[in-house]
Fold this protein.
Amino acid sequence: ADTTVHSASAMTLSRFMLEQSMKNQEYQELEALMSSIQVACKMIANLVSRAGITDLTGMQGGGGSVNIQGEEQKKLDVISNDILKECLRYTGKLGVIASEEEDHPVLVEEAFSAKYVAVFDPLDGSSNIDAAISTGTIFGIFEEKEECLVEDDADLDEARLKCLLNTLQPGDNLVAAGYCMYSSSTILVFTMGNGVNGFTLDPTIGEFVLTHPNIQVPKRGKIYSFNEANSPDWDTGLQNYVEAIKSGKGESGARYSSRYIGSMVGDVHRTLLYGGIFGYPGDKKNPNGKLRLLYEAAPMSFIVEQAGGKSTTGKERIMNIHPEQVHQRVPTFLGSADDVTELEKSLK
Ligand code: P6P
């Protein structure tokens, strides 16, 4: 067994956030949020690693409940959602929360200094849990644009509408975004607009330790990551682009490999570290593809851009898009700057 004992100087996530907030006042508020998010991720990591054992896989209860996505909610989705809501609620810093597992944004009554809005996918890729394939939590933090505290006599619908407006913000408004990947190791990667850092959970001390400082996406990679089963329905330009990089006829002349986990967090994390391009295109059947803008594509785009990569719908920068609905989908391509630029040119 690995008997490495971290010296007391190990850069834990807690210490990292303390140092960041000492350097920059504005990070002080985020410190409490990151502290609660890392607790939630440790709890979810624990559940995911024991899912098969504690029989948390499979459908929710007997009749099964169905979320707004029309998908059977698996127990772990629901529990992960509850864990994140509870951990975030008690920071007192959040006025409203939007989640893939919530039909509508949730007002947070405990908010006494509500300044932030959290959006998250509590357990993305959870359909892979039964096969022990990597899954992840994706989160984004916005500042509230307008007060949506619920005063006693406030019109609740009015407050709810204000809160909805607080969640419908473009990726450019994100003040922090990140993901926690539950895989061969548990890795929390996030940005506060000042670069991207990755922390690996060391179970021997129960702390996230800095393992990937200042992540930079390689300018170009040799991996493409799409669900090619959908290619008959793709835009011709995209079909031609993929054929070109497969046969070494793309700009770099390299023959690309295909890697597709079918779990966004795993595919994005590999793209962030190894380079290349990940995408979930729109097609004839689903013009906006499958990924959700608010709590999947936008937070991941913030991270990729902060790491020197690019993220686009194929026509425009994802971070520019103003959401109209909480659960709206968006065609998504992200990864190495040169690969994404080459793709965009092929779609024109
Ligand atoms: P497909 C998982 O269900 C998910 O939302 C993302 O994590 C993943 O990238 C995508 O869907 C996979 O979708 O249609 O290729 O199975």
Observations:
- The chain has eight helices and 13 strands.
- The chain has a mean pLDDT of 89.
- The radius of gyration is 20 Å.
- The longest strand covers residues 116-124.
